[in-house]
């Protein structure tokens, strides 16, 4: 290995320093006098002693930082729970008001002697005027940027008063259409976007604020304000490290060639020799090479690069394809034997490519990681709470673990939400979850003036620098659905004579500005200008090139079977709604609300087409549920069956289709939504189904014409010897047909291994009274099971099953339950009458005479006797 310095050069970019360690949780308890030392630089958190009030009133109350005005109002009992019943609509005044936040803090005498003292705001939402001791120091207009202010001349030893005045975003943007000469609000399709007019705020394309605060059709209409990221005072003297980045130049099994790039800023009087020390730590904690290089500190910003060779590197893989070894690096500037500053980062070594080559179907769209074509099995990610600072690290971990546990390998961070925190991306790195990262532009068109673009340039430079060392990030995407909006939503017509200006602004942002930033800051990853996008080689959402969002099912009235008419190159968004289960609904309602037509249930339904659409789809396949709780249950079964139909179809079409990401994993509040996990953390039927339809090896029976074809789809990298067993049963367990086949399941393929004529299979049996069971086994282990029915549920005379359950303790909090039924038990749902816990499997078909063994993990101490008493078993016939 060899280390050398490239001559330092002044950087034109003055991008903000990106802290590479995890963000502090909202509940962090640190005093304002607590000072943490990073080498020579000191960092003093300013997180306590905050208070807030509505501007112009004298009703100061305690505030939590990080936080937001809604959570502070709730904590101080000035409002009721915004997510309960219809409280939301009573609280629209909050977004129309201005708010003040203030605290006082002391500064240690030694800190006051530092050459530079900067107040650093990791995130202010959004229009803020900041004063320190009565003097203006900062004006902000972007919640996605870090903001800094040099404050040394304004600081004193005690009682420094920091005041942040937040102006209402609604009032701020109200007159902007007049300023620009055309109304970008008019572009949005009100029905599709859920814009609510006089009921609440609308999405604003004029502001760099989380769009999901502005009334999307899947979320509430809260317009927030507040200090949503930490605040700190940084002190430094000769120099500080402003960025530390590891560039992977080459990677092979023999060696990894890396460039360690350190950017530092020198004080105005900075001069003299210093030493840059670089330390490496391997994936198992072993010390790597320690390198030193002499540098000369100079004023302004400079870059120093070290070349490092790692022999026999361990490569990072997506989950299911290998391990996730991570290398850690530390950079220290040392002068006169004392540390000036230090920075850390962590990387995974892997190659990634978005393969887009012409083929018989058009043009491919597949991710190649370390030379392996990856079928993306994933889900769309929205913010996990409408009030983002309530999302704790354990909640992030639980949601991402659920994705991994259900065989997902990719999550799409949707462009209508936020750039997630460090813990989110760190966890994706550790779990092997690839991240499709949208930039935060969604379903709208944006101004193109110099001020707006400069604001965006600073935002994207900061965020790309913050995130680029994460191996999990697979792709940058310019926006969500803007290309398809221009082509298919009638945007040019809505803009009239201004359409050329609007389109010119689009090109400046997604064709020019963003690629230029990425070329400088992160040329290592693929970039696509929009999702869906065909790069204008075809219509966005084409089935021949690019990715696709498909919403004719659910968004339109297309039948579920139309999912199987879609064979895109990559399906990055599709979805179907359901309600949460009754326990979750009870957390935001009273019994009088338990009717899908009640005002409260309507209020908790944000789709523009709403509950009638869900009921319409349900009645196409199922009988009318007998009561409210049954409707909730059947809605989940319907959602799971719909997405199963689509996901298995997409996987069967590998390699023509190389991605399936349904909408969505999580929910930001208690609501009827497209999520597979509800707001309260309970898995819906869809989440359990996903574990099966995203299995690494999937057996998938499919009716095609007069035949039933049995596919096996494999994501495994080696051929797998297996046995396929196919049986046709009546509902009492009589075997009407059976066939077995010894297979050599080919790796990374989808292939038909059995093709059975329906006439031979059914042999004159009533198709409404049979079930086809398919099971794939290898070495005594079941790889995949699946069932297929030849009629709609409402056409079938399903028996009411009598399921027996036997409980046994496994550990202090884990139990084993064994289920058996003499007749077919369809869509078995296990729950507890009171309390909560987690069943390892749920919403499954229990075949007649067969045994199902699964685990249950309790949330607290409970006896086997109490479990027997509390367990509730529901099957599909019980709902009617």
Automatic annotation (TrEMBL):
The keyword Secreted applies. Residues 50-229 form the Beta-mannosidase-like galactose-binding domain. InterPro entries: Beta-gal/glucu_dom_sf, Beta-mannosidase-like_N2, Beta-mannosidase_GH2, Beta-mannosidase_Ig, Galactose-bd-like_sf, GH, Ig-like_fold, Ig-like_GH2. Its EC number is 3.2.1.25. Residues 1-28 form the signal peptide. The lineage of its organism: Bacteria, Pseudomonadati, Bacteroidota, Cytophagia, Cytophagales. It is found in: Secreted. This is Beta-mannosidase B. Pathway: Glycan metabolism; N-glycan degradation. Residues 240-350 form the Glycoside hydrolase family 2 immunoglobulin-like beta-sandwich domain. It catalyses: Hydrolysis of terminal, non-reducing beta-D-mannose residues in beta-D-mannosides. Keywords: Glycoprotein, Glycosidase, Hydrolase, Secreted, Signal. Belongs to the glycosyl hydrolase 2 family. Beta-mannosidase B subfamily. Residues 707-795 form the Mannosidase Ig/CBM-like domain. Pfam families: Glyco_hydro_2 (PF00703), Glyco_hydro_2_N2 (PF22666), Ig_mannosidase (PF17753), Mannosidase_ig (PF17786).
């Amino acid at each position: 290995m060899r280390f050398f310095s490239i001559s330092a050069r002044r950087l034109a970019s003055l991008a903000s320093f990106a802290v590479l360690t995890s963000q502090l949780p909202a509940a962090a308890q640190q005093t304002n006098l607590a000072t943490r030392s990073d080498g020579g630089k000191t960092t003093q958190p300013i997180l306590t002693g905050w208070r807030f009030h509505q501007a112009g009133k004298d009703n100061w109350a305690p505030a939590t930082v990080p936080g937001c005005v809604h959570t502070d109002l709730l904590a101080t009992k000035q409002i009721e729970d915004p997510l309960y019943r219809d409280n939301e609509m009573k609280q629209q005044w909050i977004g129309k008001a201005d708010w003040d936040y203030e605290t006082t803090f002391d500064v240690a005498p030694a800190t006051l002697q530092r050459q530079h003292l900067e107040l650093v705001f990791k995130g202010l939402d959004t229009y803020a005027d900041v004063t320190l001791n009565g003097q203006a120091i900062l004006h902000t207009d972007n919640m996605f940027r870090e903001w800094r202010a040099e404050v040394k001349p304004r600081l004193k030893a005690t009682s420094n008063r920091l005041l942040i005045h937040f102006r209402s975003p609604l009032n701020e943007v109200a007159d902007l259409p007049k300023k620009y000469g055309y109304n970008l609000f008019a572009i949005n399709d009100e029905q599709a976007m859920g814009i609510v007019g006089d009921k609440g705020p609308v999405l604003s394309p004029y502001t760099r604020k989380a769009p999901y605060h502005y009334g999307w059709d899947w979320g509430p209409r809260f317009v927030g304000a507040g200090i949503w990221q930490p605040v700190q005072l940084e002190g430094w003297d000769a120099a500080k490290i402003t960025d530390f980045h590891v560039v992977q130049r080459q990677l092979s099994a023999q060696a990894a060639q890396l460039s360690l790039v350190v950017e530092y800023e020198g004080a105005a009087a900075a001069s003299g020799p210093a030493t840059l020390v670089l330390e490496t730590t391997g994936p198992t904690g072993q010390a790597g090479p320690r390198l030193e290089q002499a540098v000369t500190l100079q004023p302004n910003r400079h870059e120093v690069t070290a070349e490092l060779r790692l022999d026999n590197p361990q490569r990072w893989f997506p989950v299911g394809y290998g391990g996730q070894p991570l290398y850690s690096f530390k950079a220290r500037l040392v002068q006169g034997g004392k540390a000036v500053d230090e920075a850390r980062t962590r990387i995974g070594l892997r190659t990634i490519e978005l393969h887009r080559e012409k083929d018989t179907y058009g043009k491919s769209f597949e991710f190649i990681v370390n030379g392996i074509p990856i079928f993306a099995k994933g889900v769309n990610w929205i913010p996990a709470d409408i009030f983002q600072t309530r999302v704790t690290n354990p909640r992030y971990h639980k949601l991402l673990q659920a994705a991994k546990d259900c065989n997902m390998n990719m999550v799409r961070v949707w462009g209508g939400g936020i750039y997630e925190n460090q813990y989110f991306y760190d966890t994706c790195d550790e779990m092997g979850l690839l991240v499709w990262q949208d930039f935060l532009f969604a379903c709208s068109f944006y101004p193109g003036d110099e001020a707006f673009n400069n604001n965006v340039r600073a935002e994207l430079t900061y965020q790309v620098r913050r995130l680029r060392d994460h191996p999990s990030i697979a792709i940058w995407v310019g926006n969500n659905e803007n290309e398809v909006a221009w082509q298919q939503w009638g945007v040019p017509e809505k803009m009239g004579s201004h359409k050329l200006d609007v389109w010119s602004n689009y090109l400046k942002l997604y064709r020019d500005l963003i690629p230029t930033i990425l070329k400088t800051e992160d040329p290592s990853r693929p970039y696509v200008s929009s999702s869906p996008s065909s790069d204008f080689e075809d219509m966005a959402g084409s089935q021949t090139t690019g990715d696709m969002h498909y919403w004719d099912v659910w968004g339109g009235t297309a039948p579920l079977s139309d999912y199987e008419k879609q064979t895109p190159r990559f399906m990055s968004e599709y979805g179907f709604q359901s309600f949460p289960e009754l326990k979750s609904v009870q957390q935001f309602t009273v019994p009088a609300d338990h009717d899908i037509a009640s005002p409260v249930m309507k209020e908790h339904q944000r789709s523009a087409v709403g509950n009638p659409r869900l009921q319409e789809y349900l009645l196409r396949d199922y009988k009318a549920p007998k009561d409210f709780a049954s409707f909730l249950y059947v809605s989940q079964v319907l959602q799971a069956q719909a997405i199963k139909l689509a996901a298995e179809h997409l996987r069967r079409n590998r390699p023509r289709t190389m991605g399936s990401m349904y909408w969505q994993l999580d929910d930001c509040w208690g609501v009827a939504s497209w999520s597979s996990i509800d707001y309260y953390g309970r898995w819906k039927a869809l989440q359990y189904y996903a574990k099966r339809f995203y299995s690494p090896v999937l057996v998938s029976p499919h009716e095609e014409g007069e035949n039933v074809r049995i596919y096996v789809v494999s994501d495994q990298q080696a051929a797998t010897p297996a046995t396929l067993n196919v049986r046709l049963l009546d509902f009492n367990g009589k075997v009407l047909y059976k066939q077995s086949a010894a297979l050599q399941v080919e790796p990374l393929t989808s292939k038909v291994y059995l093709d059975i004529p329906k006439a031979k299979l059914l042999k004159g049996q009533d198709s409404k009274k049979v079930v086809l069971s398919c099971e794939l086994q290898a070495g005594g282990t079941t790889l995949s099971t699946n069932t297929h029915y030849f009629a709609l549920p409402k056409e079938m005379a399903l028996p009411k099953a009598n399921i027996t359950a036997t409980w046994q303790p496994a550990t202090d909090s884990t139990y084993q339950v064994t289920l058996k039924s003499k007749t077919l038990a369809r869509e078995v749902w296990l729950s507890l009458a009171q309390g909560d816990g987690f069943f390892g499997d749920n919403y499954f078909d229990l075949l007649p005479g067969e045994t199902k063994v699964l685990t249950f993990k309790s949330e607290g101490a409970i006896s086997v006797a109490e479990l027997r008493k509390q367990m509730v078993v529901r099957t599909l016939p019980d709902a009617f």
